[in-house]
Amino acid sequence: MTTATAPPRVPEAIHRRRWAILGTLVLALLVVVLDNSILNVAMKTIATPAPTGLGASQSDLEWSINSYTLVFAGLLFTAGLLGDRFGRKKSLLAGMVVFGIGSLLSALASSPGELITYRAVMGFGGAFVMPATLAIIMNVFERSEQPKAIGIWAGAVGLAIAIGPITGGLLIEHFWWGSVFLINVPIVLVALVAMTLLVPDSKDPRPGRLDPVGVLLSIVGLVALIYGIIKGGELADFTAPDAWVPLLVGLLALAAFVLHEKRTDHPALDVAWFRNKVFSASVTVVGLVFFALMGVSFFGVFYIQSVRGYSALMAGVLMLPLAVAQLLFAPRARLVVDRFGIRATCAAGMALITAAFLGYLALDAGTPIWVLVVIGFVMGTGMAHVMPPVTVAIMSSLPREKAGAGSALNNTFRQVGGSLGVAVLGAVLSTVYRTGISDRLDQLPAGLRDRAGESLEATFAVAGKLGPDGAGLIEPAKDSFIHAMHVVAGLSAGVTAVGVLLAWFLLPAKVPGGPAAAPQPVRPLAPESADA
């Protein structure tokens, strides 16, 4: 008896060069992720007064990250829709060009305001790059190979985390701060050439009519929501009108978006996707992981450099374990899923992330540095067993022709979760730090108290200006920061513990209809087309 097998969905000419295409997409992903990991190392230098840096304040530093995030997250969903409609290759190329131009302008910025503006330009370009890479992967790989390809795609994030801080540290030590952005330009140029030659175009063959109202509501809702989150974190007060008004506007716009999408006969987003328990649980887990991770990532660089006194380069080296673990295990996560199932794999991965956050509670100013190395490796191992499986689950639960929108939703939840993490956990960090150091700040002249209480670096700066009289601020400031870090790490552990429960109770043992390891038929030669 013979068993009928479905014909291959990917043309032979594209199938033969699929790994070269993946390498090109990884290069595009690297440059987007690399930039943010480099910037984390460069923040302390950018805060230094000119000519060494830009004299950026704590708020300027936050907005140099947030301006990118605001534009990037606000446009992700729309960029995914446009890629599905007009062509994912076109979206990818356009995004890379804009990202490269934004990088060049950021490198030449002469003030914090300019840097914030040009980072927004980079975010605009990145919004078109990120969803296109994953959507193209879904269209050039057969289902049986998609978990492996997505694992490599996720592992590329680990590679960027690894080389970003080290590259940034080397650049900061030997060149001016703008070199951390200028390094993107040659990578973008190489990627553009490779994409033009190798990557096939693909799009939704039946996109239907445009939904301008839905697109507009999604942009307004996401931008307003994330702006309110960021502003609340910056003010450390979500009851301030500058925070709750945009939050309310964002939530109302997103509610109107959902109602509109349910009623229109040509929706930009099929809200029925969220009735799929696998899809809903997976995107929620993604959001929780990045909520916790981004908040801790923000204080990590200051713990390493300001509390422990390591250089920018060494700060990069100490981030290697987290990245190496992702690079090693993410491409192999599919093997664990094959044996134990997605539910057990993701729940165990979230448990490892939770354990890593609890490990931060053991850190103080004199903890052996190998403890931080172990914590990073455990966290990276956990992430490597969460992100690839849930990404496969998200993409496999949606129609293939909607790969761009699915990828955009995956990244939107990640960015919203990350923004919430930076804002909420950042506000907690600032509040706890200021409370802990307040008795020392009361001894300062009135004009210096508010400034010294902004952050650890601000306290150090005021102490330096006071000379011998400020020396007594240093150790109490470190102690207060470490206490604040412990509070944030404990909250992060609680968030990821919720993720363990969600993964265990809501994710299935196997992904229904997901990539199967069924044998592939002998593929006939077919014309080169990927319009699906």
What this model shows, in words?
- Helix 2 (18-46) runs antiparallel to helix 5.
- The protein is 75% helix and 0% strand.
- Residues 1-6 and 513-532 have low confidence and may be disordered.
- The protein is an all-alpha fold and 532 residues long.
- The radius of gyration is 23 Å and the shape is globular.
- It is a multi-pass membrane protein.
- It is found in: Cell membrane.
- This is MFS transporter.
Element order, helices and strands?
HHHHHHHHHHHHHHHHHHHHH
Share of helix among residues? Answer: over 70%
Question: Major sheet, described briefly?
Answer: none
Give the overall form.
globular
Structural class: mainly alpha
What is the β-strand count? 0
Low-confidence stretches: 1-6, 513-532
- Distance from N terminus to C terminus (CA atoms, Å) equals 32 Å
Query: What fraction strand?
Result: under 5%
